[in-house]
Design goal:
Number of domains: 1
CATH architecture: 3-Layer(aba) Sandwich
Helix content: 25-40%
Distance between the termini: 36 Å
Number of strands: 18
Structural class: alpha/beta
Shape: globular
CATH class: Alpha Beta
Radius of gyration: 22 Å
Number of helices: 14
Strand order of the largest sheet: 5-4-17-16-18
CATH topology: Rossmann fold
Largest sheet: 5 strands, mixed
Strand content: 15-25%
Length: 378
């Protein structure tokens, strides 16, 4: 019997090209930048961008504020590249400090929507003060420039607060996705030799609570470098406690000063370590640096997504991944944007949860993944 051959249908294959209306093109951020540099066409932009030192030097002027200007834009010793050599910088200066004392101080930085429906609003001023309080607390725990801090938190505002507090004092944060196991967390904090870890009691997911502190305790059973465990109270559930190691977040930051000097860093000093998933072997820690990373994420958000000052931005990724680091935390804050953070699943308790949030906060730009879109198409 001859088996009949059948063509396999390729579903969801997209060949259409969507050209933006002329009005959007003319008012876009990239068009403004091109006009300022006398660039007349997209093809000319691509040609000018081949001069890496000129291009990235000019792009950087548009999105970051150095403490000290770079002596050289690019030092290229294949396969290694050093960007903005000699510049002094800290990404928190652009993400938070520069907004204080301006109109943006009272602008909403984050709308937070918890899965149960609880909400919070944090202005740039609120975020600045919370970050400084935690930064001062971390310093009192002995965290210094170059120390590593492991962060194991869900999608709540305390996650960006913890990241920014570390960066503020020159510590290197290493965020681990809250959906990963205790063993995965242990492997990563041991690899980077974290001095402190930050977690929470538990969090909400599909109507249930996930016991993150219990998972953290399992990870810390064999994590000799960890001296302190900071625990944020999210659900109020009872958790196991090690009085010699564990500290409640609210107790730690109570009465801490709301001002904290931002550590002046070299532009090439490490900002964070983010580990690969480990699907092809041991997870690999990828180091991202203050200067080049800031220029890259702020420019892509400004040019690719064309974000403007009056937009409400929602990147529906998880901060535990590089997309979330870049387009929920650092990129939007550098540009002074208003973002949405949502704790729960996209289709819980109903398939229209995302659209309720979009309508509620008047989201103007949604950034999501094909996987999420397919979830709604089932």
């Amino acid at each position: 019997m001859v088996e009949e051959k059948r063509d396999i249908a390729v579903l969801l294959e997209e060949k259409r090209v969507f050209h933006p209306p002329k009005e959007i093109v003319e008012n876009s951020n990239v068009k403004r930048w091109m006009d300022e540099h006398g660039i007349k066409s997209y093809e000319e932009l691509l040609e000018r961008a081949k001069d890496l030192e000129w291009f990235w030097g000019e792009v950087a002027k548009d999105v970051v504020n150095w403490y000290e200007e770079p002596k050289k834009i690019l030092e290229w010793k294949p396969p290694y590249a050093e960007w903005f050599v000699g510049a002094k910088y800290n990404i928190v200066h652009d993400a938070l400090d520069k907004h204080i004392g301006t109109d943006r101080e009272n602008k909403i930085a984050y709308y937070f929507e918890g899965e149960p429906g609880d909400t919070r609003k944090l202005t740039y001023g609120d975020l600045y003060r919370e970050v400084n309080r935690l930064a001062n607390a971390l310093k009192d725990l002995g965290v210094r420039k170059g120390d590593r801090v492991g962060i194991y938190l869900p999608m709540i505002p305390e996650l960006p607060i913890a990241m920014l507090a570390c960066a503020k004092i020159g510590a290197i944060h290493s965020v681990v996705f809250s959906g990963f196991s205790a063993l995965a967390f242990r492997e990563r904090i041991n690899d980077c030799k974290a001095k402190v870890v930050i977690t929470c009691d538990s969090f909400y997911r599909r109507g249930k609570t996930v016991p993150l502190k219990k998972q953290t305790d399992l990870a810390l059973e064999d994590a000799p470098s960890v001296e302190h465990c900071i625990v944020f109270k999210r659900t109020g559930e009872e958790v196991p406690w090690n009085k010699d190691r564990d500290i409640w977040w609210h107790d730690l930051v109570k009465d801490r000063p709301e001002e904290c000097d931002t550590e002046v860093m070299d532009a090439n000093d490490p900002l964070f370590i983010l580990y690969t998933s480990g699907t092809t072997g041991k997870p690999k820690g990828v180091i991202h640096r203050h200067g080049g990373y800031a220029v890259g994420v702020a420019t892509t958000l400004k040019w690719v997504f064309d974000i403007k000052d009056n937009d409400i931005w929602w990147c529906a990724a998880d901060i535990g991944w590089i997309t979330g680091h870049s387009y929920i935390v650092y990129g939007p804050l550098i540009l002074g944007a208003t973002s949405v953070i949502y704790e729960g699943a996209p289709d819980y308790p109903k398939p229209d949860r995302w659209w309720e949030i979009i309508e509620k906060y008047k989201v103007t730009i949604l950034y999501t993944s094909p996987t999420s879109i397919r979830l709604f198409m089932r």
